[in-house]
Amino acid sequence: MSTTLPLPAPARATAPRADATARPGGDVLTYHVKTLGCQMNVHDSEHMAGMLEQAGYVPADPADAAADDVDVLVINTCAVRENAADKLYGNLGRLAGTKRSRAGGMQIAVGGCLAQKDRAGIVERAPWVDVVFGTHNLDVLPTLLERARHNAAAQVEIEESLKVFPSTLPTRRESVYAGWVSISVGCNNTCTFCIVPHLRGKERDRRPGDVLAEVEALVATGAIEVTLLGQNVNSYGVGFGDRHAFGKLLRAVGAVPGLERVRFTSPHPAAFTDDVIEAMAATPTVMPQLHMPLQSGSDRVLRAMRRSYRADRFLGILERVRAAIPHAAITTDVIVGFPGETEEDFRETLRVVEASRFSSAFTFQYSPRPGTPAADLPDQLPKAVVQERYERLVALQERISAEENAAQVGRTVDVLVAQGEGRKDGATARISGRAADNRLVHLALPVGLDPADAPRPGDLVTVQVTHGAPHHLVADSALAPGGLFRVRRTRAGDAWQARAEGREEEHAHGGSGGACGTGAAPAGPVVLGLPAVGRPPA
């Protein structure tokens, strides 16, 4: 996944702030953050953008950002798969010429998991990089940029353990109607294919009060949806000895006034307990959606992966979830071609995928990551074998996804309109968003609808599904005579409109407990100011 931050054109500052950072000639310095990787990286990039804006940098115009015509370009990297490294170094190679030819000069900063892994090796391979920083010290980015300018030399700073909990940092939210909330960082598992624990460190949990404070702050600025993030989100509570803490947190977050949708990602099957299912079913604001990584359907391969569950346990979790939440949409991750995987092992994966009836799946071809135990295992599979199995898995899941989505035809769904979800919306005259179960829905507007009455990002639209495709639903009920099309304009839509029109106001959420209005989103970083006393112990 590749995500580019920060915000779309209407949300960007149109004039420099009085305290904006400027180059010697007096022009304001612009920035752009590119994100490669998972939701954790996307949220980290929001922190990077927040810190840069707090330091006086201004978001680049979208056209300039697309052309890399910026004063500071930050690349937030992933290290999970080999192609992520290829993508980074390919980007850096292209940026060498861009940097040389840019009249005003340019700084390039590399952060994230690959920076934590490769460290000074990034500057050795790409000497035109100015700053390298890791996953444990996001807060140093503005300082390193200034130091690199002053010293005219690359600055590399990698910490071995977390120094500042990311959620205490300034944040430039990508969206005003939906937001990420980290409840933990790091991972205590030892999956043989994964380098994340080495790069993100051991799991550290936030205090429940801090999580709730951030959720309440988001709601106060207009958000009606939050997604709780953790490397193993349902392991939450290990830091303070409560194995049922995640279920309790779900109920507490779901009860925050004004919040309408709660999601979470990603849980680990080994730690998934029935009290979490009960909390999901009993809390109306927790959405009927679950991302549950399978990785393999072969018990032998799961043992080799050090995944501490087996196929029957995995299928049992799905059965209990569907018994409690009949319309739940369940998605997954699957790795094909793990070292030593036999045709029989792969057939077991196909069997479990068929039985699981996932609404969609993220499928990956195994790639060895240096530093992981699996990279040194014998019986690494030939590329041709892995590719052939991958294509069979994708074909199976495409069929299942098409069948599951076709079964949605005729259902009434509430769609939270989103910005940027429908790439073809302009050509199809539709708008797009997510149903409660997180399925992507493209929906038609009634003929002759006054543009002033059109749903905005953040508004909710009730429609009927008219078509199901493998990767999306179509809801064109508005085009039928008397067809269902009902709009609920929300304060999240109000906040989006205020941001788009440049009417947003600054709000500070400090430890002093100052109140915040709900009518608009903040123009600058959302500074949550969570109390230091609430941080988890080292």
From TrEMBL:
Residues 406-479 form the TRAM domain. It comes from Cellulomonas flavigena (strain ATCC 482 / DSM 20109 / BCRC 11376 / JCM 18109 / NBRC 3775 / NCIMB 8073 / NRS 134). One of its GO terms (molecular function) is 4 iron, 4 sulfur cluster binding. Keywords: 4Fe-4S, Cytoplasm, Iron, Iron-sulfur, Metal-binding, S-adenosyl-L-methionine, Transferase, tRNA processing. Its EC number is 2.8.4.3. Residues 173-403 form the Radical SAM core domain. Its cofactor is [4Fe-4S] cluster. The lineage of its organism: Bacteria, Bacillati, Actinomycetota, Actinomycetes, Micrococcales. It is found in: Cytoplasm. Belongs to the methylthiotransferase family. MiaB subfamily. The gene is miaB. SMART domains: Elp3. This is tRNA-2-methylthio-N(6)-dimethylallyladenosine synthase. InterPro entries: Elp3/MiaA/NifB-like_rSAM, Methylthiotransferase, Methylthiotransferase_CS, Methylthiotransferase_N, Methylthiotransferase_N_sf, MiaB_methiolase, rSAM, rSAM_horseshoe.
